[in-house]
Amino acid sequence: MFLRNYLFPGRYGPEWGSGGIFGLRYHNGTLYFTLAFEAEAHFIDVSSGEEKTYDFTLLGEAPTSGGDTYNAVETVDEFIYFGGWVHAPAVYREDRRILFNNKYSHVHAYDTEEGSVKLLWKDSIHHETDWAGEVSDIIYDPYGDRLLLAREDGHANLGVYSLDRKTGRAEALIHEPSPKGTRVHDTAFFGIGNNFTEGLREFMALDLISGKWETFKPGESADGRPYIRPELGAMSSAYNRAFAFVRGGILAGNPFMGEEFSFYRLFDFYTFYAPFRVNAINVGGGILTAFNAHHDAVYRPDSNDSGIGWTSTNTIAGPSVLVYIAPPMVKIVGAFGARVTSIEKMGGKLLVATNSAPNTGAREATPFDTGNRDIVILDEKILQERPPAVSFSLPLALPSMAKELGAGTFGGFPLDGYRDPRALFYLSGDNRLTVYEYDLSLPAGEATVETFELKAGKNILDLSSFSGIVSFELEKLEKKGKVRVELR
């Protein structure tokens, strides 16, 4: 396969910072993706290489901007259903603001047989600063032959909606904000909560046969320690369980088969390093997704939060990593820059869309996209090869701050495939380190715990005697030191 366009520098597209390449989906001989913030939907006939581009003007007048920033896409029969949000037309002000009067949430359908685009549904509240909930996920219900829409990012019309794919009629099923969902057996699980204030609060599950809803709380951590702000990035299913990829780790389980949701700490740095604005796909019976280093960020420090928001979103603890989930194994299979935005499998290859820049905040809009976006093509065999060497570096002031809030256990480094991993602690004073060792067992098992005495200065901890996943906790607060973990 040859992609005529695979590199996209920033062009006109008023919004907050950078969007990305979203919704990568190969279906019925067509490769689809949306380029944001330019609001361009691309459809490539893989056999001929012919490429069509749609600018979302069925929603309103040009110039449009936006598109999709959560990978809202589903396929049924000959159709590719793609959703998200679009400004039509975009209105940019020179005080670094964008007006939202013309912002629409949408679902379109692309007919792969006819090569045509149809607007199926749209919604807007036509407000200057607020907007209707974006479509952040689309899930097909085979029993009801309908589309289930998850909507969390916005100010009105949030929740889970049912959309008739023939008439375009939508109705709200619940009004709790939901960014993502996944289908397990005959149930659709949805993560509930606001990602920018609290993270995932609970799961709500819809029985696709009876229409009944049930609610479940996230469970305890496999390492036995508290966790905070599990912002929800992606969901998927395998092994008859739902997997929710959140800031700080993974929540996995299925109460309908007698197993509560458990939290597995993974890449928990008390920054906004998270599996956010990326999808998760099934490959080889497992799940492939990414944890991103820099997906959303505060561009200018704000005195109102004492710089905490700037620090937590701009501390780059490590590269973005592509991770393969095949319980009890969690394996790093790729290392990338600021963020991975979309993943798809096609013809023995993995397509990985990336971006060099994050989304930014409300008064940090630009009249153009600020990132460089591209598509990297990898061979599926990376799932079976040794993982790449990666390193992470974290100021210990962040776990110490979290410890004052009742948390403080950090890390969750997957060691599978590494022969000589180690951790280097640079401390301002003597301290005691607790290491928690666990894996992604289903159902969750208990962690093994070991303690080590560390001295002021440089300490090297050999991790080769550990297996699975390890997380750390320091007994005393450390405001000046740092830790560097090298997986090699």
Task: Please give the structural blueprint.
Layout: E1 7-8, E2 12-16, E3 20-27, E4 30-36, E5 40-45, E6 51-54, E7 65-67, E8 73-76, E9 79-87, E10 91-93, E11 97-99, E12 103-111, E13 116-123, E14 137-141, E15 146-151, E16 159-163, E17 170-174, E18 181-184, E19 187-192, E20 202-207, E21 213-216, E22 232-238, E23 241-246, E24 249-254, E25 259-265, E26 281-283, E27 286-291, H1 308-314, E28 320-326, E29 329-336, E30 339-346, E31 349-355, E32 365-368, E33 373-379, E34 390-395, H2 397-404, E35 410-414, E36 422-427, E37 431-438, E38 448-454, E39 457-462, E40 469-474, E41 482-487
Organism: Thermococcus gorgonarius
Pfam family, one: DUF2139
Protein name: Phosphate ABC transporter substrate-binding protein
Please give a structural write-up.
With 488 residues, the chain is mainly beta. The chain folds into two domains: 7-383, Methylamine Dehydrogenase, Chain H, CATH 2.130.10; 390-487, Jelly Rolls. It contains two helices and 41 strands. The strands form eleven sheets. Strands 7, 8, 9, 12 and 13 form a five-stranded antiparallel sheet that branches. The chain starts with 6 loop residues before the first strand and ends with a strand. The model has no long low-confidence stretch (mean pLDDT 96).
Q: What is the overall shape?
A: globular
Number of helices: 2
What's the number of extended β-strand segments? 41
CATH topology of the largest domain: Methylamine Dehydrogenase, Chain H
Task: Throw out a few tags for this protein.
Jelly Rolls; single chain; mainly beta; 488 residues; Phosphate ABC transporter substrate-binding protein; Methylamine Dehydrogenase, Chain H; 2 helices; five-stranded antiparallel sheet; globular
